[in-house]
């Protein structure tokens, strides 16, 4: 497995309505910025591009990258807000349904909640989790389930009308508790239209959080003894404009030192 992976955070400015059919063409244009970058994962935000599985599957195969997208899933008479994962061959690897739905999602978008179970997906570089928005940063259960399944990195697709500042604080807490890397992807700042009413989506702020790069046990011990803050786990945080940002995430440290980290704090984990 790779020690370091390359990821693209795509922070788009959507059209006002979530189900606007132009979103998939917009997504395809943004994916062109990823061509030739030899990426492991490309990640879109929550509810974007909403539909377009066939196009995204072709793009994953064409770019040779895993793609995560915020897509609508319809199962019988129920609709779900999902993080949907395609592998490098363009195959649908799986979906993660959002469990904790806001009032707008329930009452105006007609979404049904997931069942509260979270699945770690195996990739060629390790296991990943895909909890959607508040499922990750708002409550501890998703991160705990995923870590217990061996997830080393979380991709937290989100969209924020409120609490944008709390997002990264909550994500840092989950990263610390579970010694995880986290990639958070939001939309750019824009005005959404839901049930005929406009809502300002305070976008931007997509980020990468990761424990520091520690090369051996001695360096880990020195780092731990001097640990005073985890603010430096935030590798970067984007502004509120549309953009594609490419970053490297170091996973080897998560694999090597997670249990040492827990043991030092007395965390009782599996």
UniProtKB/TrEMBL annotation:
- Keywords linked to the UniProt accession: Hydrolase
Q: Which residues form the CN hydrolase domain?
A: 5-251
Question: Which is an annotated GO molecular function term of this record?
Answer: hydrolase activity, acting on carbon-nitrogen (but not peptide) bonds, in linear amides
- Fetch the SUPFAM superfamilies from UniProt: Carbon-nitrogen hydrolase
Q: Quick check: keyword Hydrolase in the entry?
A: yes
Q: Does the keyword ATP-binding apply?
A: no
Under which name does UniProt file this protein? Predicted amidohydrolase
Question: Taxonomically, what lineage is the organism?
Answer: Bacteria, Pseudomonadati, Thermodesulfobacteriota, Syntrophobacteria, Syntrophobacterales
């Amino acid at each position: 497995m790779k020690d370091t992976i390359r990821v693209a955070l795509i922070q788009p400015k959507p059209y006002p309505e979530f189900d606007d059919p132009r979103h998939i063409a917009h997504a395809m244009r943004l994916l062109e910025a990823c061509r030739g970058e030899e990426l492991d994962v490309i990640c879109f935000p929550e509810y974007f591009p909403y539909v377009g599985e066939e196009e995204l599957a072709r793009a994953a195969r064409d770019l040779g990258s895993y793609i995560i997208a915020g897509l609508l899933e319809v199962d019988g008479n129920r609709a779900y807000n999902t993080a949907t994962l395609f592998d490098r061959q363009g195959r649908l690897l799986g979906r993660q349904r959002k469990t904790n739905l806001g009032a707008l999602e329930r009452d105006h978008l007609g979404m049904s909640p997931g069942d509260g179970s979270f699945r770690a997906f195996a990739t060629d570089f390790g296991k990943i989790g895909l909890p959607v928005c508040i499922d990750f940063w708002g409550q501890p259960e998703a991160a705990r389930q995923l870590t217990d399944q061996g997830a080393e990195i979380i991709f937290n697709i989100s969209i924020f009308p409120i609490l944008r500042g709390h997002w990264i604080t909550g994500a840092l807490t989950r990263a610390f508790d579970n010694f995880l890397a986290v990639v958070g992807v939001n939309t750019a700042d824009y005005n959404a239209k839901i049930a005929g009413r406009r809502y300002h989506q305070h976008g931007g702020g997509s980020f990468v959080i990761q424990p520091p790069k520690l090369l051996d046990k001695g360096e880990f011990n020195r780092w731990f003894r001097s640990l005073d803050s985890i603010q430096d786990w935030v590798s970067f945080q984007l502004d509120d404009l549309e953009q594609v940002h490419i970053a490297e995430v170091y996973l080897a440290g998560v694999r090597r030192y997670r249990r040492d980290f827990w043991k030092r704090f007395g965390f009782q984990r599996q």
